[in-house]
Amino acid sequence: MSIIEELKTRRRFLKTLAGGIIAPLAGGALLTRTATVIAADNPHLKEDDPAAKQLNYKHDASQVDSSKYESGQKCDNCRYFKGNEGDEWGPCTIFPGKSVNGAGWCSSYSAK
Ligand code: SF4
User: Fold this and answer.
1) Interatomic CA distance for residues 53 and 38, integer angstroms
2) Residue 48 Cα, ligand 1 centroid: separation in angstroms?
3) 30-51: per-residue pLDDT in tens?
4) What average pLDDT does the chain have?
5) Rounded mean pLDDT, 56-80
6) DSSP string covering 50-78, please?
7) Pairing of strands 89-91, 99-101
8) Which residues are CB-contacts of 41 (< 8 A; sequence separation ≥ 6)?
9) Which of 49, 53, 57, 63 to mutate to test ligand 1, by most ligand atoms within 8 A of the CB atom?
């Protein structure tokens, strides 16, 4: 292999290596930005919102006074929560256009 061919091979290797590192970082940054935009677009659901009151929604599941509530149930492990487990706030399909607290709960809870 000539020196020129060897340099071309090394350049190709370095380009591939850089693409393998940069692409996942860019993808992670995009997901973070998307989650931030979604959270910013959806104002927090208020506990005194009529729809929230109807479904006994609370920001803190430990404050729930309902015979339906079972320990360990909270928004971030509910099938209707569209954030990720551990997110402080996230969208919920039961309350469109609003964010619910990840530690919250309502009587529509359904385990993932
Ligand atoms: S439906 Fe699930 S995620 Fe939405 S408020 Fe009720 S418990 Fe939380």
Assistant:
1) 24
2) 15
3) 444 555 555 558 999 999 999 9
4) 81
5) 94
6) HHHHHTT-BSSGGG---TT--TT--GGGB
7) antiparallel
8) none
9) 57
